Amino acid sequence: MITSVSVKNWKKFDQQKEWTFDKGIQLIYGPNTSGKSSLLEAIYFAFFGVNEKVDGNPTYNSNESAIVTVDFISDTGDKYRIIRSYKKIKRKEESFTLYKLVDGKEEFFSENPQDAIKLYGKFEDIFTHIIFLKEGEIYRTLSRMKSNLDEELSYLLNLQRFDVLREKLRETRLKVIKKQKESVKKDPAYLSEKEINEFKEKLHSLNNEKEKLEGKKKKVIHDKKLAEKRFSLNKKLKELDSEKQKYGETIKNIRTKYENKESLIDFLNNEIAVLENKNEQLDIKCSKLSSEKAEKEGEKRRLNKLINEINSFKSSGTTTCPTCYQKVDPMILQEAIEGFSKKVKDLENALFQLNSSINEINEEKRIISQKIREIKEDLFDLENAKKGISFIQQEINEINNYLNSLPHTENIENYSMQIEDLEDEISNINVEIRTVEKKLSSSKQEGIMIDELEFQEKFIELVENKLSEYKDELLERKLNEIKGVIKEKWAEIWDKEIWSIEFDDNLVPTISFKYKGTTIQQNLRSFSASEKILLSVILRAALIDKLLSVKTMILDDPSIFLDQESVKIAARFYRELIDNKHVDQIIMTTFDESFKELLKPEKVINLE
């Protein structure tokens, strides 16, 4: 789809001009000589440069370059920009650059114009005969296309590739494969049937011998695994016995520590009970001493408080008691202070004795607690050692029972040597087997190659026929699709249901249709000018709809040869092409005001 056109120094446009386009009918409207055709020629020039479709000198000022920029969207949805310039003083100078637009920014793509044509229209002939039509070409288009509709479709569908491929396949079948078959049959590796049978018998004998040796090897490997198992279990027995001895040493050391007492566990439990009972008695004694200490400390605090109160009364300088309001002799107060102080001193001596007793009790409790912990640790180690010995002995018994159930085995090294000898024998047989198999394989390969070559020969011949059939089917299918569009549009325009359409070698159609109960045959020569023009556009629209991915038509003044009634029909037809999505975009020019109104274009570009 064309999205924008920009020109500078191009034909009638001396200054920079830019027009944008979208989907639907994009109508360029204006009077004659307003530059409508020049705008369309700018699109053609961007793709193909100056040729017979660009009238006259394209520059407004011949001393400067004409510059045309065209933005378009390819069939993949990517955006591209063509910038082409032209200048001719002594000789023609043209430049062409194709950019890919990524986020609106130009990225260089190519300087080859063919790359732009491939992205938009695929081939120059498609663009110039189907997509782009200058003023006056619509009427003559059917006779100016290729000589035959089948040939035109073959060209558009690129069906020539089937003929090229079929010829290559035929050459391969007749020359290459035949030569390969003759070469294979001359190969000295080819064996007679008798030689093949002899080698097969030898191979069978070698395989039997190999099978016996592998069976023997398998048994030796099994016996070796048993020997390794026996060795591993004996090693485990030694480890268990060592662990058992360690537990025994633990029990012996604990018994020695406690002078080999009978029923040592009961003895230790009893010792713990005695010591814990003694601790409880010490706790009771300590509690009593602590209570006594608390009483004496309370008495001491009370006496110190009285002493402080008397001293405070003395220091106040008064001799009257604040409680009884009687005079107090200072000597009596001093005697009271001395008496209380002596009692405090006695209490402190008593508290010192109590603290000493409590500390002695706590130290004795600490020693007893330490003794209890040691006895409990010894008791735990003793019980754990006995359980460990019992568990280990059980495991030793199980291993011995399993060892007794195993068959007698030799030394592991003997088995290893036997395995090596058997592997050497098997290796030698494998060498012989590979030699025989190689000879048989070479001979078999020769036979397979002959079979494959014969199969390829038949398959290629089948593919040749299928290619021809597929080409004809594809051509017929596309032709029917195109005819279907023509029938549909013809019926919509003239309310005539087409029964059949046939084209001669010059693309002159003969149409059969039923009109008011009568079957009518009509060829191009009997069509009116309007019918010829509309049939030409219908054919183009059908080709674009069914063959091209870029669905754009560019028409220069398509209403110029139409009468007023045909203008209405044509406007409705172009409108339906867009509305029914046969084409996505129609860029056309006109000076006809009524045609513009009938078209109902999505966009109108007015040129003065």
Description:
The chain is α/β, with parallel strands linked by helices and 608 residues long. Among the domains are: 2-145 and 537-606, Rossmann fold (3-Layer(aba) Sandwich), CATH 3.40.50.300; 258-405, Helix hairpin bin (Helix Hairpins), CATH 1.10.287. Helix content is 64%, strand content 14%. A six-stranded antiparallel sheet has the order 2-1-4-5-6-7, covered by helices on one side. The protein has a five-stranded parallel sheet with strand order 8-12-13-3-14, with helices on both faces. α6 runs antiparallel to α10 (412-494). It is elongated. It starts with a strand and ends with a strand. The model is unreliable at 141-147 (pLDDT under 50).
Question: What's a concise summary of this model?
Answer:
This protein has 608 residues and is an alpha/beta fold. The chain is built from 13 helices and 14 strands. Among the domains are: 2-145 and 537-606, P-loop containing nucleotide triphosphate hydrolases (Rossmann fold); 258-405, Helix Hairpins (Orthogonal Bundle), CATH 1.10.287.
